[in-house]
Amino acid sequence: MNQEERTVRFDHTLQVEAYRFEGIMQKFPNHFHEYYVIGFIEHGKRKLTCKNKDYIIGTGDVIFFNPFDTHACESINNETLDYRCLNINADIMKKVAEEITGQEFLPSFTSPVVYQCEHSSTLHKLHQMVMDERSDLEKEETFYFLLEQLIEAYSLPHEQMKEQKTPTQAVEHLCTYLKTHYSESIKLDDLAKIVKLNKYSLLRSFTRTLGITPYRYLQTIRINEAKKRLERGLKPIDAALDSGFIDQSHFSHFFKEFIGLTPGQYQKIFDKS
Questions:
Q1: Per-residue pLDDT tens for 131-185?
Q2: Quick one: which of 135, 151, 146, 148 has its CA closest to 14?
Q3: How far apart are CA 15 and CA 264, in angstroms?
Q4: What share of the chain is helix, strand, coil (3-state, %, to 5)?
Q5: Which of 72, 128, 205, 239 allows an S-S link to 30, with CB 3.0 to 4.6 Å?
Q6: How far apart are CA 161 and CA 156, in angstroms?
Q7: Any idea where the HTH araC/xylS-type domain is (predicted)?
Q8: In what order do the strands lie in the sheet with 71-75?
Q9: pTM surpassing 0.70?
Q10: Tens digit of pLDDT for each residue in 230-239?
């Protein structure tokens, strides 16, 4: 079996991350990101679960994750995966979407999977430009024209955005609390008292609404906060403790499980030396 390879780049012009995973078998647990993920399968087959719905994805399929879309994936029949993706922060997506449409909004992609997507070749071209660390006009043009096509073809029309369902008030309150107190030790009793629900009702409501448990939500918040600290150059142990992890080993385990890279591998893409 071929040895797996994991390559990552950060494009300082476009302000996007590019991942390329080759020959991986890793199972990714249910989690979310605070940024958009636009990716495609170069080779392999996987079972994807996004917002409690299952999909079978394979070569040529394109995936879209909006910020906070819960998702998990695993291999089918022990097939290895070759996968590329671009990670785009919400503020960058908002800026680009406004330039493209003339309206200030965050696009909401309606489906996490587009089978045999006609835009996969352009996405591959742009991704390779980022991996090759090109800094030219063609790369920027490709980025803007691709996002224009993807937003027009696969996102919810701007005027329908306000009609989307929002979490219940109790779940929204808990999310705000977890985002604010992620670095602290949090117990289920604490959360139950905050929203005045028994522990089981809290867990059921939270998980049914968001498709992820409070614990997984908290760990994802902590990973996202740790990423920001790694980007600024903090040592992994400091990033871990600042973000609420009990030690570096605990942190490294969750980071690799959620992101597919070690903290050190991730930090290297921001090293300009």
A1: 999 888 899 999 999 999 999 999 987 655 555 555 688 899 999 999 999 999 9
A2: 135
A3: 20
A4: 45, 20, 35
A5: 72
A6: 7
A7: 172-269
A8: 28-31, 71-75, 45-50, 53-58
A9: yes
A10: 999 999 999 9
